[in-house]
């Protein structure tokens, strides 16, 4: 499963995008032809996989269904769902898993648009389906990477960091205030969650962004430093050497 959460994979084919109303759909699958993602909009469904433990899916959650799986679907509380079947390249076998996202309504809109594109199949619609599936996977990876189920008190600050890491005015004090806790307590909770200090985490994001800008060949080191949130060129150079082991100029035109 680590290959999914940490990987950059290629979706080779969209086989089906569909909407399943309450009370409809198959209940038994043998040697599933494709991988699948299903979003349960409402209700509760239990999946019984041959040779594995049952998996319960609640409204607002997504389930991954492996290619080749044998399983039975048991609706426990009526609800509708969206499903996308697909193939991908060079991914190791993975067990079924479920994910609950913060904004289920936004995810539902993405599934619904994929279903509409698949149904009408106008020019560009099939590529749009694939783009939407990548977007769905991106959301799932982001939720997992941030560990939303365990962040607790510091969740607002982590969201702020991911959105505004390039803001030079971002401080530990302001982040702690968003969470309603002291800076000392915030630092302790953050280090427990991520293994580094908040400042180290922020600077790593800034280095990553500066590197992306430098690789385009469109920015000088000074410009990349400024756009990434570093106060000056010397700070950018120091952090690059800490994180990458080389100066930022190494990434010019590469």
Features:
254 residues, alpha+beta, Jelly Rolls, Arc Repressor Mutant, subunit A, 2 domains, 5-stranded antiparallel beta sheet, 4-stranded antiparallel beta sheet, globular
Structure, described:
This protein has 254 residues and is α+β, with helices and mostly antiparallel strands. The chain folds into two domains: 2-146, Regulatory protein AraC (Jelly Rolls, Sandwich); 151-251, Arc Repressor Mutant, subunit A, CATH 1.10.10.60. Helix content is 45%, strand content 21%. It has helices spanning 2-6, 104-120, 125-146, 148-151, 155-164, 172-179, 183-194, 198-215, 221-228, 233-243; strands spanning 10-20, 28-29, 35-40, 44-49, 55-58, 61-65, 71-77, 81-89, 97-100. A five-stranded antiparallel sheet has the order 1-8-3-6-9, with helices on one face. A hairpin with a 5-residue loop joins strand 4 and strand 5. The longest helix is centred in the middle third of the chain and has 22 residues, at 125-146. The radius of gyration is 22 Å and the shape is globular. The protein starts with a helix and ends in an 11-residue tail after the last helix.
